[in-house]
Amino acid sequence: MSEKRTQLFEAWKKCQKIQLDYLNEHLGIFYPDVVEMCRRAFESGLDICTCTECIMNKVAHAIDLAVLDPRSQTKDVIKACNLAKKYKMASVCVYPIDVLFTKMLLRESDVKVSTVIGFPFGNQLTDIKCEEAKRAIADGAEELDMVMSMGRFIDAPGLGILLDIQRVVHTAGGIPVKVIIETGNWSSCGIIKASKMVEEAGGAFVKTCTGFGPRGVEVEDIELIKEAVKLPIKASGGIKTRQQAEFYLEQGCSRLGIGLSSIEKILKETKQPR
Q1: 36 lies in the same domain as 119
Q2: What is the CATH number for 245?
Q3: What is the pLDDT of residue 151?
């Protein structure tokens, strides 16, 4: 091997070692099997960058990829579906108007179609929410993300909220209903009370935020929900980096709601370890 090629090889090997050290330091606790795979690749003289895609796959299986920007266009739905299929994400979450089209795009894949009900503030009549759910399911929705009535919870956090959720759950007929409680609106007591209502009403998940509220998810929200109920948790709102996604999974969340613009950044971070 010429001296120049030897120098290039040594420089490449040094870069690989830097990437491996980074992965071990930041991800070794969460994904030891992936880091071990990268270590073996390094020792064999292979490029470990291809192995880091495995990390994204582990996160991706928990992601509901959201296309809920009010300015979203058809091209955004197509892009989201292509990414979700490529990385085997849990679902693509779209507005009800896009459910039928999304179902067509995701045919012959394991990625589910999810949609929002009563979005984003939950203050529609319960009858309207039920009709919205019924139509979405007819169009092909396989999961529903329903927003709890914010105004009703403030006025009288009791029977009205419970019946609102129960009726949508009943309408869904076995389709999972993730209930968004918008944690940023409430005190600790409010988050606990809302979570217990979701469980009592038959909700499948407690979901933290819509992305249209006063803030996104915070770790305290997850701790309070876990204290209150045994339901799966969907962390949503403000998850914009790979580290945040991994953190909320490590905290015990079963699903992550991540927007299309954020997922592109997360994918880029995964491909280029710092």
Answers
A1: no
A2: 3.20.20.70
A3: 83
193 part of the active site: no
Report d(CA 49, CA 70) in Å as an integer. Answer: 36
Closest to 205 measured CA to CA, from 101, 102, 93: 93
In a domain, 55, yes or no: no
Active-site residue, 145 included: yes
Residue entry with tokens 């019946």: 163
Would you state the pLDDT for residue 189? 95
- Among 11, 27, 50, identify where a domain stops: 50
| Overall domain count for the chain | 2
Q: Which of 59, 86, 28, 57 is nearest to 253 (CA)?
A: 59
Question: Of 112, 129, 178, 207, which one is the catalytic site residue?
Answer: 207
Task: Give the pLDDT of residue 270.
Answer: 59
Same domain, 164 and 37: no
- Residue 240 pLDDT: 94
Predicted pLDDT at 242 = 87
Annotated catalytic residue within 64, 145, 164, 221: 145
Residues in the chain, pLDDT under 50: 273-274
Gap between the Cα atoms of 64 and 89, Å rounded: 7
Measured CA to CA in angstroms, residue 61 lies from 65, 99, 110, 128, 251 at distances of 10, 20, 10, 32, 16
Domain region containing 16: 3-50
- pLDDT at residue number 30: 57
| pLDDT tens per residue across span 172-214 | 999 999 999 999 999 999 999 999 999 999 999 999 999 999 9
CA distance 85 to 83: 5
Query: Are the C-beta atoms of 12 and 18 separated by less than 8 Å?
Result: no
* Percent of residues, the chain, with pLDDT higher than 70: 81
Please, are residues 80 and 260 in contact by the beta-carbon 8 Å criterion?
yes
Active site residue 207: yes
